């Protein structure tokens, strides 16, 4: 029997199913599970600590504390450490603006900027533990502010620049942030998004906010409220040149990032300082094989976890050069990305299946116009990648030369969990499979009862022991933390994904098993969409479902029951679309809306989602059974027929 922290570990290791042995990987994986504390302590020593930990792991399920008693600073790891070496004159950030401008920041420039920004925050009274909201476009000021917060021990919460005022206000109210940092505007496809105006609207709904810092990007005039709104430029004029990094307890939150779950309220996922950094530092070495000369470009928005880990904390902790691109992928022309790869000599390119499918549609003549020969490694994240998109990526972007790392992870996991790890040892790839768990990650596929399934059977993906990157909690909601991740299978982390392992033991991730949609890689809760829809005065009830989309992976289909006496109309449909965009943001735009007189429900009142899905996909129910269903096949068939009739009676489908 093995033990980890205070708990016993049971179950088979995922190595037991392996057909072809991979020497280095197998040895490392085995070692990581045999003596995890020793393994992670070795990894942790790659970072600089002010004080070493007393305990590697304190595990009181479901709460894990990593490197307890240790002290470190995330900004120090990503910046100060490098300016003490020759890397001080190495490029940290190549920034490309949508209009074609370039800003190149060396590590020493980054050091100077981070210190001034940190000083500006301090002079405004921001202290260790305070929450600071960042609502910024993809400009260097965004990572600089993240690092400045980390330097003084403030907890940043980055809000994606595509979110609406209401969505921002929900996050501000939940974190009780006193300060928002925003910009006068953001460039998107040649247009200007009025970020400051949206931030003002959000601030009006958030009593905790008393200051807004405005970064100048577009230069357009914006209303400034006296005493509340401050120009970054003036703050920097007064700022000191150096701020001592705050030695932070390893378990202190580094940031809070909101993500959608199965209720209408997004979850504030917390990440710790020590465990998160150790995990990401190691994972990026294993997966991306980051080298001194790497030029690393992750196309995600910094507003998502991918941006936090894969643009900011992991690559900078390695002293890598990163590319940060501000604008739309296909603006002003559809070869913009390929142009950027050529311009900066990108060696590692990490993007999403949705983007790849979009570029597939534009055609391979666009990448063919560019010299992409610097590329060495490609990565995919956020949703399952279909073998066709994988092949296209491999052939036309990677020139049949670059391995593709299909990386499975989640906002909650902090870093990559299941992925090829060429930095340890290259393994044979299978298009569409995320392959194997990284060292220390005890992944398994289990039945509804929590029994590990034989190879070839679809089940739930779980992680059977804690890992350093794992979320320590949901901000202000310990119950939800237990409920969402640790109660479906007691003592085991529930991912919410379906997966299967093939005859060679490879993991294939099959999509969400819970009420979460993935639209263009963005995570949206059905409950969030439904709450937004029912806030329309004509709507009695609403249910959201997904249908497969050739580019976005999934598209939103909305089923709506109108209040007594209200007839379906094009106007209501348009208003509903506007309502969703306003409450959540443009990613929440429904593809189709069905008006129906009723919604199919189980005896306990749960919406029968697979019926909605079948209708959305124009399929019959047949004898499909899924793991999550509590109704009998007969009942499901009846409800399916009834829904079809109810839709017809109510005026039917209303395509956008
Ligand atoms: C969900 C997490 C973590 C980065 C961005 C997404 C899906 C993520 C893959 C992949 C298949 C994937 C899962 C997961 N997902 N990566 N390589 N293959 N599915 O973070 O918004 O927290 O979403 O994205 O469904 O649970 P997120």
Write out key terms for the chains shown.
binds 5'-O-[(S)-butoxy(hydroxy)phosphoryl]adenosine; 19 helices; alpha/beta; 31% helix; 5-stranded parallel beta sheet; globular; 32 strands; 7-stranded mixed beta sheet; GMP Synthetase, Chain A, domain 3
Report on this structure.
The strands form ten sheets. The protein has a seven-stranded mixed beta sheet with strand order 7-6-19-18-20-21-22, sandwiched between helices. It has a five-stranded parallel beta sheet with strand order 9-8-10-13-14, sandwiched between helices. The chain has a four-stranded antiparallel beta sheet with strand order 23-24-25-26. The N and C termini lie far apart (58 Å). The N terminus is likely disordered. The longest helix is centred in the N-terminal third of the chain and has 17 residues. α3 runs parallel beside α10, α6 crosses α7 and α12 packs across α14. A hairpin with a 5-residue loop joins β25 and β26. It is built from 19 helices and 32 strands. The protein is α/β, with parallel strands linked by helices. The chain is 31% helix and 24% strand. It has a domain of 133 residues: 2-Layer Sandwich (GMP Synthetase, Chain A, domain 3). 5'-O-[(S)-butoxy(hydroxy)phosphoryl]adenosine binds next to α10, β22, β25 and β26.
């Amino acid at each position: 029997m093995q033990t980890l922290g205070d708990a016993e570990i049971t179950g088979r290791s995922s190595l037991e199913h392996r057909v072809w042995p991979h020497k280095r990987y197998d040895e490392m994986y085995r070692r990581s599970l045999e003596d995890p504390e020793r393994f992670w302590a070795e990894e942790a020593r790659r970072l600089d600590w002010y004080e070493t930990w007393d305990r590697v792991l304190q595990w009181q399920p479901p709460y894990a504390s990593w490197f307890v008693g240790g002290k470190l600073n995330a900004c120090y790891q990503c910046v100060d450490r490098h300016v003490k070496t020759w890397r001080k004159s190495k490029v940290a950030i190549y920034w490309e603006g949508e209009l074609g401008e370039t800003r190149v920041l060396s590590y020493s420039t980054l050091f100077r900027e981070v210190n001034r920004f940190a000083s500006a925050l301090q002079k405004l009274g921001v202290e260790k533990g305070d929450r600071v909201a960042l609502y910024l476009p993809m400009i260097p000021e965004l990572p600089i502010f993240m690092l400045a917060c980390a330097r003084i021990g403030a907890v940043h919460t980055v809000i994606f620049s595509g979110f609406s005022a209401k969505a921002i206000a929900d996050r501000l109210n939940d974190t009780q942030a006193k300060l928002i940092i925003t910009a006068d505007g953001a460039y998107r496809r040649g247009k200007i998004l009025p970020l400051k105006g949206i931030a003002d609207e959000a601030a009006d709904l958030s009593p905790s906010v008393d200051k807004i810092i405005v970064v100048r990007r577009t230069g357009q005039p914006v209303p400034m409220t006296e005493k509340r709104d401050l120009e970054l430029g003036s703050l920097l004029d007064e700022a000191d040149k150096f701020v001592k990094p705050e030695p932070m307890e390893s378990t202190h939150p580094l940031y809070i990032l909101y993500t959608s779950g199965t209720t209408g309220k997004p979850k504030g996922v917390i990440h710790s300082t020590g465990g998160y950094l150790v995990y990401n530092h190691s994972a990026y070495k294993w997966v991306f094989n980051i080298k001194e000369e790497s030029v690393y470009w992750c196309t995600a928005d910094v507003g998502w976890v991918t941006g936090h880990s894969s643009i900011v904390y992991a690559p900078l902790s390695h002293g890598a050069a990163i590319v940060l691109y501000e604008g739309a992928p296909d603006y002003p022309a559809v070869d913009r990305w390929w142009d950027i790869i050529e311009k900066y000599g990108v060696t590692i390119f990490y993007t999403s299946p949705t983007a790849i499918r979009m570029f597939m549609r534009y055609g391979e003549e666009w990448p063919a116009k560019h010299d992409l020969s610097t590329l060495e490694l490609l990565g995919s994240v956020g949703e399952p990648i279909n073998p066709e998109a994988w092949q296209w990526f491999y052939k036309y972007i990677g020139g049949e030369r670059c391995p593709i790392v299909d990386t499975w992870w989640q906002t909650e996991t902090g870093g990559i969990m299941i992925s090829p790890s060429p930095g340890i040892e290259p393994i044979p790839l299978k298009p569409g499979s995320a392959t194997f768990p990284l060292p220390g990650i005890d992944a398994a596929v289990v039945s509804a009862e929590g029994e590990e399934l034989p190879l070839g059977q679809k089940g739930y993906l779980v992680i059977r022991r804690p890992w350093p990157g794992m979320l320590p909690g949901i901000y202000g909601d310990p119950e939800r933390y237990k409920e969402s991740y640790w109660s479906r299978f007691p003592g085991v982390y529930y991912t919410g994904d379906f997966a299967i392992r093939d005859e060679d033991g490879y993991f294939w991730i099959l999509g969400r098993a819970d009420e979460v949609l993935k639209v263009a890689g963005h995570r949206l809760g059905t409950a969030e969409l439904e709450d937004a829809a029912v806030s329309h005065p004509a709507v009695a009830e609403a249910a959201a479902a997904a249908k497969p989309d050739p580019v976005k992976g999934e598209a939103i289909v909305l089923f709506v029951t109108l209040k007594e006496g209200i007839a379906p109309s094009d106007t209501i449909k348009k208003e509903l679309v506007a309502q969703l965009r306003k409450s959540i943001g443009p990613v929440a735009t429904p593809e189709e809306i069905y008006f129906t007189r009723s919604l199919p429900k189980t005896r306990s009142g749960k919406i029968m989602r697979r019926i909605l899905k079948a209708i959305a996909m124009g399929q019959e129910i047949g004898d499909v059974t899924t793991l999550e269903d509590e109704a009998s096949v007969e009942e499901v068939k009846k409800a399916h027929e009834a829904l079809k009739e109810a839709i017809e009676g109510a005026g039917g489908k209303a395509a956008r």
